[in-house]
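I would like you to help me understand the sequence and structure tokens below and explain how sequence relates to structure.
___
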Amino acid sequence: MARKGEKRGRACVVVLGDIGRSPRMQYHALSLARQASLEVDVVAYGGSEPHSAVLEHQSIHIHKMPQWPAFPRGLPSILKPFVLLLKPVVQFIVLLWYLCVKISAPDVFLVQNPPSVPTLVAVKWASWLRQSAFIVDWHNFGYTLLALSLGRSSRFVAIYRWVEWQFGRMADGSLCVTRAMQHELAQNWGIKATVLYDQPPEFFHPASLEEQHKLFFRLDKNLRQPLGVEDCTSTGIGEVVNKDMQETLFTTLVGADIASKPNRPALIVSSTSWTPDEDFGILLEAAVMYDRRVAAILNEDDSKKEEVLWKEMQSGKQYLYPRLLFVITGKGPEKEKYEEKIRRLKLKRVAFRTAWLSAEDYPLLLGSADLGVCLHTSSSGLDLPMKVVDMFGCGLPVCAVSYSCIKELVQVEKNGLLFSSSSELADELLMLFKGFPDACDSLKVLRNGALDMSSSVKWATEWEEHAKGLILEVISGNLD
């Protein structure tokens, strides 16, 4: 701790992206300020609000860079390669200006990778010019993300990988998110990295019934508003939306007590960036399969109208399998495409909502849900989805797409399940929600496992043990 009147050290957290959508770097900023007692400058793009804990901390100073403008719709295709080459040049100049002129000289730069170009180059140059240390936090590999759109054989991908490798090796220290990535960096990149697993901060926790009731009341209009014409959870014709906080879609106020509705839908949350590395089509196909298989199990006649079924559900009738309400959070390029697909679905027992929640409401939604679904597959196969970490922090069990290192996080049949196809996910939904909400034993086992994780390690503990020493050692070495 710095004594009164003593000059505090300084760190700069660098994100060539929306700081509000970069939770790990927000947590780094908080830990650098709280646990390492440093003044912290955050250089990033704006767009989404960071968590209030970051905004309100007196030692954290956010500097928002101007964003590269989107492509004009009428831009001739012959100019697109020129614009693609111009973009990193302009980003490099702007980033270097902020790192070398707009902020005070830091003792250490901590930079998120990817994106690697021009970020690693600009931060390395800034560290030379300002005589600062330079640490890379490896979340993934930038060249593998670029290969999703250009292909692994692209010359641009090869150049990108060389730049990422060359400047990544120049760092004074490295952190990474998995042991698999640590091994890859050591064996094939010549980089020694310390594993810092993502862990949720203290504001991710299971929500109380009171917190759930208030959240669902705030979200009531959005949750009842269908993406299509009408669905199994939308407000019925002539129904008056509750305005006195007596009742929500999931909870009800009885006297002074809040209770969960016995015939409520099961709430399933999936957070996505709506990008090609997350195949949202798997979830849509699984939802259709669940809907059809439940109808077949219950011997429902295809001629039975959805409206009749929905009226029975709203009047309190319970079934062996519940309605499912999927709330999909996040922003990204493929969102509108999938929303249009959802509008065309005709489902009896499944409904979808898309939402962008505040940094304060998102943990509450996870803490109020019954199941999380993760579609992240990883361009490199070496990183772990932070959204699953957040879900476990809220005691929420998870169904996640299976890939090479996911078992470093998801313990099968203890805190979650894995799937490789839409059919497998549909099978898991049927197994977990049979007898919902009271007689679904398999779901309860997974929830208990997730709750055990939520009460164990938190971000501050993990950062103290694995990151603080490295960062302070790098700063000390740079000052010698």
In short: Residues 399 and 417 are 5 Å apart (CA to CA). The longest helix spans residues 80-102. Residues 1-6, 237-241 have pLDDT under 50 and may be disordered.
